[in-house]
Design goal:
Elements: E1 3-5, E2 17-19, E3 34-36, E4 61-63, E5 76-82, E6 91-96, E7 101-105, E8 115-116, E9 129-131, E10 140-142, E11 162-168, E12 171-175, E13 181-185, E14 189-192, H1 208-213, E15 268-270
Antiparallel strand pairs: 1-2, 3-4, 5-6, 5-8, 6-7, 9-14, 10-11, 10-14, 11-12, 12-13, 13-15
InterPro entries: NA-bd_OB-fold (IPR012340), Rib_uL2_dom2 (IPR014722), Ribosomal_uL2 (IPR002171), Ribosomal_uL2_bac/org-type (IPR005880), Ribosomal_uL2_C (IPR022669), Ribosomal_uL2_dom3 (IPR014726), Ribosomal_uL2_RNA-bd_dom (IPR022666), Translation_prot_SH3-like_sf (IPR008991)
GO molecular function, one term: rRNA binding
Subunit structure: Part of the 50S ribosomal subunit. Forms a bridge to the 30S subunit in the 70S ribosome.
């Protein structure tokens, strides 16, 4: 993994830091695994704006990713590592021995030509997916299920990983990327290794236009608004705006919004850090 700092030949390139893409092996996606992706522009079915600052952006096609890893005990070979415009992590194109191709989230260190598989009895090596009960303690894992058969929902973005801390009965203890420690059913699947593209956090856009390419529209500072538009608006001169809060009045910066009566609270052993 590497990043490149561009020469400041234009104002937009002066501070820009881009991905080196040295681990990407092809720029041609697998056509059989592409699907259309419709943009909503932040509007609901009635055409009303329900999410601000959305719209525009480059046209994309969705890559159908196998989050369940349910083709078990069939070996596959990594054909290529590819860029995905819909997520921060890279994708690995797998070709199974029966000829089927699937995309999976690529782990750090996954190489073209490497053999990966999923199942109860596979070795705990990078890229392999197996139930949490069969993974050794202390192993770095990612793409974790929360319900058996649901498919990976946790630790899927660039550079993230979790760690298997303990096993007790039908549950295992996992330390999440957020710092939260929680119980997960031992039957749930997880993939060995940290997610690829760990340098994603070092990237610098360099100009406002790049946010527009990503489909993000300009955002007005709340303190610059009128009281009718935002709780932090109004005041004489450059008023600070009081306590930081959302447009709906929910406080930001440390205010906890998780329900105290949520049924899954009993599985959380240690809350994430503020």
């Amino acid at each position: 993994m590497s990043v490149r700092k561009l020469k400041p030949i234009t104002p937009g390139q002066r501070f820009r830091v881009v991905n080196g893409f040295d681990s990407i092996t092809t720029d041609k996606p697998e056509k059989s695994l592409l699907a259309p992706l419709k943009k909503s522009g932040g509007r609901n079915s009635q055409g009303k704006m329900t999410m601000r600052h959305r719209g525009g952006g480059h046209k994309r096609r969705y890559r159908v990713v196998d989050f369940k890893r349910d083709k078990q005990d069939v070996a596959s070979t990594v054909k290529s590592i590819q860029y995905d415009p819909n997520r921060t992590a890279f994708l690995a194109l797998l070709e199974y021995t029966d000829g089927e191709k699937r995309y999976v989230i690529a782990q750090n260190g996954l190489q073209v030509g490497q053999t990966v598989s999923s199942g109860d009895n596979v070795a705990p090596e990078i890229g392999n997916a197996l139930p949490l009960k069969n993974i050794p303690l202390g192993t770095i894992i990612s793409c974790i299920e929360l319900r058996p058969g649901q498919g990976a929902v946790m630790a899927r973005s660039a550079g993230t990983f979790a760690q298997l801390m303990a096993k007790e009965g039908k549950f295992v203890t996992v330390k999440m990327p957020s710092g939260e420690t929680r119980l997960i059913l031992s039957e749930c699947m997880a993939t060995i290794g940290a997610i690829s593209n760990s340098d994603h956090q070092l990237l610098v856009s360099g100009k406002a236009g790049r946010s527009r390419w990503l489909g993000r529209r300009p955002r007005t500072r709340p303190v610059a608004m009128n009281p009718v538009d935002h709780p932090m608006g109004g005041g004489e001169g450059r008023a600070s705006g009081g306590h930081p809060r959302s447009k709906n009045g929910i406080p930001a910066k440390g205010f906890r919004t998780r329900s105290k009566t949520k049924s899954t609270n009993r599985y959380i052993l240690e809350r994430r850090k503020k």
